[in-house]
Amino acid sequence: MSILELKNVSYAYKGGDGKVLNGVNASFEKGIMYAVMGKSGAGKSTLLSLISGLDLPTEGEILFDGTDLKTVSRDAYRAKSIGVIFQSFNLLTNATVIDNIILSMNISGVKGGNKEAAYALLEKVGIDKSKANRKVLKLSGGEQQRVGIARALSHAPDIIIADEPSGNLDGSTEDSVMQLFKDLAVKDNKCVIIVTHSKNVAACADEVLSINNGVLSPMKRSKLLK
Amino acid sequence: MYLLKNSLKNIGRNAGRNLLIGIILFVIIGATAVAILINTATKAIIDDYRTRFGSEVTLSLDYGKAIDGGAYTDTGENGLAVTDITPAMQLEFAKSPYLKETRMTSSTMANVPGLKVMEDSNDNIYRVWLNGSNTPTISADFINGKRKIIDGDIYKNENDCLISKQIADKNELKIGDTLLLKRGSSEYTLTICGIFEDHTMDGVTRHPLEAVNPLNNSNNEILTAMETAEKIGVESLAATYYLKDPSTLDKFKADLLNKGLPGYYNVKTDEAGYKAVVGPMENMQGITNTFMIVVLAVGAVILLLVSAMAARERKYEIGVLRAMGMSKGKVVTGFAVEMLLITVVCLGIGLGLSALIAQPIGNSLLQSQIELAQEAAKNGLVTVTTIDTGALAAAAASTVTALSEIKIALSGMAALEISLVAIGLAIASSLIGIIRIMRYEPMRILSERG
Ligand SMILES: Nc1ncnc2c1ncn2[C@@H]1O[C@H](COP(=O)(O)OP(=O)(O)O)[C@@H](O)[C@H]1O
Ligand SMILES: [Mg+2]
User: Containing domain of residue A23, as a range?
Assistant: First the structure.
């Protein structure tokens, strides 16, 4: 069974003009890394937000492990089942890096959610102890991005989604971050969904989807080569 | 637990804003505490005066009633033939069960054969005054310092008496000597128990044509206890009655009528004197009440504005916390705890500080109250009940003894009230803005940013 299934999902912003998503059908499996592509404004972030349980679709349903998100606590779903790396990071900028990670662990009720585990996790994404004790505000965009990744991984969720993670990373970090995502899918059997503009990133993915006119469809690999 | 830790850290993360909120809260708490303190102090003073003035009873002739009652004659003094209140009646009144005490001073003309007196003249049968008093300390001359015991002590035993230094010197009398007092055909032996310095005649000059009369010289007063004076005979008596309970005035009046007081006498407590002293205190209470309401209202409005601004600032934070999976309840609780911690600190400082300034405030109020009381006494607003039975009545001393101290402290109840108001205000104001945001899904909160 798919870990995540979208059935005829539509979404319109309140006060926005019309449907951004219009009957999206898709299913996502564990152990696979997906790339979602599409023009700016196509609705990629909107789709990720719905998958993240930040809102419910206006029509259709999103099933996690076969259960409609409408019928479960989306707080718990966000806290435990999914890790999101936002396009705009959405970190607590006034708090220190380490506090961001620990708070996330606390909210998720991670056992052994302690400072040492948080430092280790940050180390893994390339944030050392001295940076970990700085306020998020004082870090560069790329560093904040990596803190966002660490936070998404802090509670070991089944699904990890990232909204244009490569946008803020330089070439070599991009490679290492992509390797990290790839490992999460392959080695840790996670479901990884990455929104990207980069064909390089998409080339790393097992499956590539594209969003067009509010509809999500598989993309032929040959298109990536052009 | 982590919520509390996070709230604690949040206070430091937003130090500037929280300092501002803290200062506003502190001002509200402090001003309210001071207002309550002043009210407690003035209430203590008002209560004191209420019992004091409310219990001091005046008897006075109501001319209107006397005339209506048929007391009018062509021949009587002032055209009125009224029944005077005699010393015997006054002594009888003093036995009323409604009274806490009766302060009495009496005067009686007498003679001590062989005693050299001041301004002596041979054609006088009576050459000294025998003044009785049941409460020696109420004598105005002793209070204002014109008289002072310099030898011996105040009368304690029956037949004890005090004489002036002038008389003692003139007759070489000392403590323990006796005086043989004659009144009519009766004789009494009085023992001198004390000698007082007497300045009541200082600066008194006599018109050359004025007849010399030792009864006009107050150095010739022999002071004794009321019981002794009663036994010897009382010619005039001044009595001030104090009720046990101000509300029993009507019952007391009925009792006096029963004991023979003519209906055309007013039996009243002194309202004018009461108002003179209590009025300003009540004004002060009014002012502090208004002050407190204004501070609370203005404070609440400012707090609401600051919190509304803070809520806008915190919208992003709420969105992030919600996106991280924190439940609405926990977000609200966290913010409430944060505000509660700030409020508790402000309460600690505010209440602590007001506890420190409580006594100085009380003392300065008391000082102004004492000055008011003295002013009132000077203006004759304080009741002095003198009942003239023909002879010159001795004036009882005015008896405004101000409260010598008031203990002012915030009661536990008041502190609790202030705490509840402050906590309620702080939490309500901070949560009003937040709860509005909380209605939205995190997607909307985050996407509306910027
Ligand atoms: N809060 C919002 N209210 C109204 N319309 C929005 C809002 N956020 C995004 N949109 C619109 O929805 C569409 C999809 O946006 P988005 O999902 O961010 O696109 P993408 O991430 O693919 O660039 C865009 O046309 C955008 O203008
Ligand atoms: Mg986007």
Answer: 2-221
Please state the domain extents for chain B: 2-54+273-449, 99-243
Pocket residue to mutate for ligand 1, from A11, A19, A46, A86, most atoms within 8 A of Cβ: A46
Answer yes or no: is A226 within a domain: no
Whether the Cβ atoms of residue B22 and residue B303 lie closer than 8 Å to each other: no
- Both tokens of B74, joined, read 């062509």
pLDDT digits (tens, 9 = 90+) for B49-89: 777 666 778 787 787 777 776 665 555 555 566 777 888 88
Whole-complex ipTM: 0.95
Burial label for B162, CB within 10 Å (0-12, 13-18, 19+), is buried
Is the minimum distance from the CB of B447 to ligand 1 under 6 angstroms? yes
Give the DSSP letter of residue B316. H
The helix-helix angle for B328-378 and B2-13 (nearest 10°) equals 60
Tell me if B13 and A56 make a contact (CB, 8 A cut-off): no
Task: Say if A147 is an interface residue toward chain B (CB within 8 Å).
Answer: no
- Residue positions counted in chain A: 226
**From ligand 1's centre to the CA of B199, what distance in Å?**
101
pTM score over 0.80: no
- Those residues whose C-beta lies under 8 Å from the C-beta of residue B393, and which sit 6 or more positions away, are B107, B236, B237, B238, B386, B387
Q: Tell me how far apart the alpha carbons of residues A94 and B14 are, in angstroms, rounded to a whole number.
A: 8
Over residues A134-190, the pLDDT tens digits come to 999 999 988 999 999 999 999 999 999 999 987 777 777 788 888 999 999 999 999
Total tally of structural domains belonging to chain A? 1
Q: The domain spanning residue A77 has which CATH number? A: 3.40.50.300
